[in-house]
């Protein structure tokens, strides 16, 4: 089909998620209802009121750059369109829900599971970073799972390009309290290594069932982060403890890069070239 699409080209089904200025629905094409999509609907009025025009534009540009099927771990963007009220992102539908729900349901996960989940996250973040994109809001809610165990990173609403990162006071805290890196809290600094910090928090959470830093309120959480105040509750392989410890350091320059992570001894059996081996056959 050629030309711009309109909302009438889709049948909107149940709500999949809700953000501060967007709602995601499952949808099918009116002419061909065999394939599911996740359509993110952003209210123009809200975006303008909340001064989020810049972020929505960046989200669209970055997804156009990364989400064209270039990597299985980045949510695919099929098209965008708008009407008088809303902007629409037609995204790949990912059927297995959020990684957060998997952790909520199972608590601490078995090592084979979290190894393959983490390897996929590292591979996807490496792809993003090699294209100069910092996600800035990596957390288990923004990681979706397909029914076969493939992870898909979504919600690039806080993301930025490496060229505009660095010391950017206006964008100081855009992430989620529990996964925010200390340099953002202390110096309003954000770089590729802030995503790596979030990966460290996520790996910890997969092994322990809860994130490393969680206070009774945001301020307490921030205090724990800047003091590296976390404990291991569930027995965890030493290689994993060492890996998380190497990531959760205050100085972002001392953190491993995504390339370093791919070389980590705990992941030595991972075949990075064969992408589908990172999820196929792990969950049976
Ligand atoms: N919730 C938010 N985005 C989604 C997507 N792309 N697929 C399924 N559920 C979602």
Describe the SSE topology:
Blueprint: E1 10-18, E2 22-29, E3 36-43, H1 44-49, H2 53-66, E4 77-82, E5 86-92, H3 99-106, H4 111-130, E6 133-134, E7 143-145, E8 151-153, E9 160-161, E10 166-167, H5 182-187, E11 189-190, H6 192-208, H7 218-226, H8 238-247, H9 258-262
Antiparallel strand pairs: 1-2, 2-3, 3-5, 4-5, 6-9, 7-8, 10-11
The structure holds adenine.
- Class based on secondary structure composition and strand pairing: alpha+beta
Q: Could you give a short account of the major beta sheet?
A: 5 strands, antiparallel
Distance between termini? 39 Å
Number of helices: 9
Tally of strands: 11
Protein name: non-specific serine/threonine protein kinase
Binding site for ATP: 40
Organism: Lachancea lanzarotensis
Family: Belongs to the protein kinase superfamily. AGC Ser/Thr protein kinase family. PDPK1 subfamily.
What attributes does this structure have?
binds adenine, 284 residues, alpha+beta, 9 helices, 11 strands, two-stranded antiparallel ribbon, five-stranded antiparallel sheet
Describe what this molecule looks like in 3D.
The chain has 284 residues and is an alpha+beta fold. Helix content is 33%, strand content 18%. The chain is built from nine helices and eleven strands. The strands form four sheets. Strands 1-2-3-5-4 form a five-stranded antiparallel β-sheet. Strands 6-9 form a two-stranded antiparallel sheet. Strands 7-8 form a two-stranded antiparallel sheet. Helix 4 (111-130) packs antiparallel against helix 6 and helix 6 runs antiparallel to helix 8.
């Amino acid at each position: 089909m050629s030309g711009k699409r309109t909302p009438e080209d889709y049948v909107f089904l149940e709500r999949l998620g809700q953000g501060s200025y967007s709602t995601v629905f499952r949808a099918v094409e009116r002419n061909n209802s065999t394939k599911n999509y996740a359509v993110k609907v952003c209210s123009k009025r809200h975006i303008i009121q909340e001064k989020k025009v810049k972020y929505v534009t960046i989200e669209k540009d970055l997804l156009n750059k990364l989400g064209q099927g270039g990597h299985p771990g980045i949510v695919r963007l099929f098209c965008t369109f708008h009407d008088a009220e809303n902007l629409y992102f037609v995204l790949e539908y990912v059927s297995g829900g959020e990684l957060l729900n998997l952790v909520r349901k199972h608590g601490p996960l078995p090592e084979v599971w979290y190894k393959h989940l983490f390897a996929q996250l590292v591979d996807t973040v490496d792809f993003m970073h090699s294209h100069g994109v910092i996600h800035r809001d990596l957390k288990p809610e923004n990681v979706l799972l397909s029914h076969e165990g493939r992870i898909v990173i979504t919600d690039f609403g806080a993301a930025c390009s490496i060229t505009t990162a660095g010391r950017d006071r206006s964008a100081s805290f855009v992430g989620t309290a529990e996964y925010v890196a200390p340099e953002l809290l202390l110096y309003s600094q954000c770089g590729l290594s802030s995503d790596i910090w979030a990966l460290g928090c996520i790996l910890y959470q997969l092994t322990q069932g809860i994130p490393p830093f969680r206070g009774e309120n945001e301020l307490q959480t921030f205090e724990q982060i800047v003091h590296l105040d976390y404990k291991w509750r569930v027995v965890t392989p030493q290689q994993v403890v060492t890996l998380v410890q190497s990531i959760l350091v205050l100085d972002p320059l001392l953190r491993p890069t995504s390339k370093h992570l791919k070389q980590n001894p705990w992941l030595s059996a991972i075949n990075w070239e064969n992408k589908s081996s990172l999820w196929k056959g792990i969950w049976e």
